[in-house]
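hey team, just a heads up i'm posting the complex here instead of the shared drive bc the drive is being weird again. everything in one block, sequence lines first with there labels, then the predicted structure for the whole assembly after. its two chains so it's a bit long, scroll down
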Amino acid sequence: MTDKKSKRLGIDVGGTYTDLVFFDEASKDMRMAKTPSTPGNLVEGVINGIMALGLDLSTVQLVVHGTTMGVNTVIQQNGAKTGLLTTAGFEDVLEIGTMSKPEMYNLFYRKPRPLVSRDHRLGISERMTYEGEVLVAVDAEDVRTQARSLVDDGVTAVAVATLHSYANPENEIEIARILKEEFPDLNVSVSHEISNLRREFERTSTAVLNAYIAPPARAYFEHLRSELYARGFDGAIFIMKSNGGVMEVLTASRTPAHTLLSGPVAGSIAGKTLSAVTAKPNVITFDMGGTSCDISVILEGEPEAAFESQVEGYPIMTPMVRITYLGAGGGSIAKIIGERSLRVGPESAGADPGPACYNQGGELPTVTDANLILGRLDPQSALAGGIALDRDLAAAAIKTHVADRLGMSVKDAALGIVEIGCVKMAYAIREVTIEQGLDPRDFTLISFGGAGPMHTPFIASMVGIRQVIVPWSPGTLCGWGMLNTDLRHDVVQVVDYGGRQLNQSELADLFARLEAQGRAALIDQGVDATRLFTNRSIDMRYKGQEHTLTIPLAGGPIDAEMLSNLQLMYNQTHERKYAHASPDEPVEFVNIRAEAVGELDKPGLYMPKAASANGAKAAIETRLVTFKEGDLPTDVYGREQLEPGMKIDGPAIVTEVGATTLVPPAFALSVDDYGNLIIDVPEAG
Amino acid sequence: MTKPDPITVEIVRNAILSCANEMKIDLRRTSYNPIINEMNDFSVGIFNERAETLAQAPGLPEFVCDIPSAIHSVVGDIGGFDKFRDGDIYLTNDPYANTFHVHDVNAIKPIFFAGELVGFSCARAHWHDIGGASAAGSLTATEVFQEGIILRSVGLYREGVLNEDVMRVIRENTRLPDAVVGDLRAQVGCCNVGALRLVTVIERFGPEVYRACAEQILADGELQALDALNAVPDGAYSAESCVDNDGIDLDTPLAIKARVIKTADQLIIDLTGSAEECTGPIYSNTNTTRSMCRLIFKMMTTPTEPANEGHFRMVDVIIPEKSIFNAKKPKATLPGFFALETLEDVVKRALSSAMPERVNADDYGRCTPAHIKFIAPDGQYLILADTEGGGWGANHADDGEHAMLFGEVRVIPIEIMEMRYPVRLRQYTLRQDSGGVGRFQGGLGVIKDYECLIDAQLNGGFDRQVCPPQGILGGGEALSNRMVIKKTDGSELLLPSKVTDYPVSAGEVISFQTGGGGGYGDPLERDARHVRRDLRQGLISRERANSDYDLSVSEA
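-- predicted structure starts here --
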């Protein structure tokens, strides 16, 4: 079985762990590895993982890679020394921002520091109108002088972002041309190429983020490529994008801003595949790790899209899967404020020093410490990366910082800490869904990440969700999600300026142009034209409104019928999202969008091997686990022992590398044909 | 009543907070008016059966904890808490009992469980138009009747039945009936969501446990605030500032004075000595004044916790009978926030020596409401609304922030402004040297220059020119807000701090210049590296670096 084309490797480099998922289509061999991430040199962790898997890279056709490199660069503020060339008089747009103050009672609040310092934000004499007319042409001499002063100051990356470039990019293109001519080594990021939308602060911020991480991203991707090639690999490397698709590694080196929010997106893509396979079109994915959880909503089989978000407080305006981040995880710290008010999170012990039980110097009690005290986590089974858990340290931390101060037992305090953590996540899930006009009770919860499956049964019960799915290898699901992606390239055009609306044929022409642009971008990345298709959508709103909704277009020619269907769909979506619609109001088109997709082969769902020898429920051990109902003898199973069709009543625990699934009393576990754990949640009450 | 265990208290607290959050989501989701769903000019919350705040969702901080006074005013009008019936919803916007101005309308729903009043859900929102003399809202009215209609304790629903007469009154008294009625429906829906959710919470925990937890949440809040207050030495502390004028008599500043008295278990804020009266609209009622004092107290004591009544129990406010903080009908109140926001700075400054690590120096003067009005070639009336942020006061550990508003309010992007209105922006920059000097420097304001492409009229209020934002503990004073007209011949004209219908010709530039924040501590103690950095970045001039910070030219 050396069919080279069938072997694929997903590599997910996260903040704490690097996960690898290898799949061989021909033999259906699937293997996972989890190794600690290596922050100084992330490629090292990747190579460690490959060695752990014992892979012969020369037999691998395709690597799909998601990386936290970009986010790390922003968090650690160690990106390139970056300059900004912008319209003269507007150099401070990047620092003024939206002027919003999210912490409303905090008198000392500071906005995130701009990634380009004020002396490196320089104005160019040029001006575009909102209708795309050149009011002042670019002063070439100005560009040369300003760029020279940036380069002399040691700037290596430059963002070019001028007013109204979405309406006409001519001036930005001219500035970039001069830069290329005069300073060919400068890394240049041009705003309309990365975020071709109206709103100068967000577009500038996106271009600046791209410029800031581009040099380290290029170095990182080159390093990864050379390390993989040195080990015999000669296939393609695709990089995960925030929009749920992938792009070729060289494209990623130029536009790394599109990778910035890709980390948690792979989990949502995995959820999408699971949703299709299990025939559950409406699911919520819940990925809980050490410091945070990521929530996404999949409606009618598609992850919800968003077009703007933030990276460490810096706005980024690119197409992406909507992910809601919540600062709650296994590392969330429990503490008392005032006299006897107990709080859990949002502060986290993170991976370093980590929970008290990690014995790495952490003294404050966390949710993980509480789970250990309750017998839900096994102190014997060392976590990935070889961290053994110390129960005494966990007990001491909870006793000193919580239990003694509240006058309760360590066990009661631990139960409380976990319950409060779950309550907060439950409300977050509720709020994420009702915000979109959806009822969480209509959804199935897909739970993964190292800490997810231990908490989601409780969370589901609190929200009123009736079923939880724990997929195979929940600790490495994101890596698997990466093997279920396609190449994707988005193109957008603002169309509502000048008070004119496009007629039918203009609309058709513009779409044709955008679709061609999208296709060309993918063909450049090596996509076979036969496996390429495009999707179209329009951002619409009622005339005079501010917010838009993105409505997908059906296939086929753009004609009167399609346009009237479009308006109908807009009204329906508006009704769902905002609880009212105005079918008689005129609707306007704001942005038109084309998304080119280059299909890749997918592994499908892994099918577990046949049952264990006797087919009986073979528990590894029975231990006492603390629930609200008391200390109950609880059977513990190894995940690999569970075969399709098995049914187990709670309380029960399923352990596997990187995750522990808890089935509380009155909950019922069954195993489906794909080896997924299905947990039925009893009706609350 | 036995004390509930702290874990249940925390779970119930999260549950009630989530009720408030869901109300916020619902109101933002279903309202029509961008002032509500984009600018977040609203406040929603859950209150106990005595009308005390249990939880309020984040929104506009200025509204925090002003809703109880709205509930109390309805209680007073209908004759007691026992007059509420299940299914009632009352409206009130009485600017003499609660709210800044008639535009802020409260919807109040009593919540019943097993036949008993257990609390209230309320939604206050800013209505786009509620009648009155001017669509954009005059900043210089002399009577409330010029500002809009008053809905005082009006029963919109009685025992679940809508009073259509009230709907008709509202519809016929606004220039934007569809949007206003749409927003009102959203407020009603939002109150219903809050009530429904709270009833679910009470069902889940049982009424006894729920009530015990609700009491404990307030008691805990009180302890948290007392923790911070106990660090303040007993004594009396004073400060003062002023509002430039009342918009009518431009030569008479209105004094804003506070004497803050800290005793063993109380903080008393005495406003005696503040301006007693004026002709213009710089008035606020005693309840809203009290709320503003509570807000600033909260910012100094429990800034990270969501607000509940417990956080304010130790605050008392003394307001003289004759005072601009004690509005009496028919005084106008629309821009009364000028005085209230100045009062925040005064209270902070009074306490600066007593709690030096919890207050910052004066902020830029907050409210800078501005409307540029055009008549488009097609005869359509276009009103550009803007409110600009400025510099915030420095604190014991950090410089003040530049160019920032308060709460979740946002400015409209330039690219959208230019598309919608006949303006062209000439510059949008930080205003050099506008922050007060100090060991930590006040944040900078901004300069935003609008070229009017056709003739326009300007309504604007850029206050704090007579009494600019002050530094604390040795920090310097900041530049104040101002409006300047840049004429086509290159000359500049400084406008009075409040103008209504000021004519601007095509080609002229309206320059909004916001103030900075005050400085903190002795400027000579400022880290020389920071002085050099600010100089290099153009945040301060060389002159300032040399004279105020004593950075010698050779060193720079």
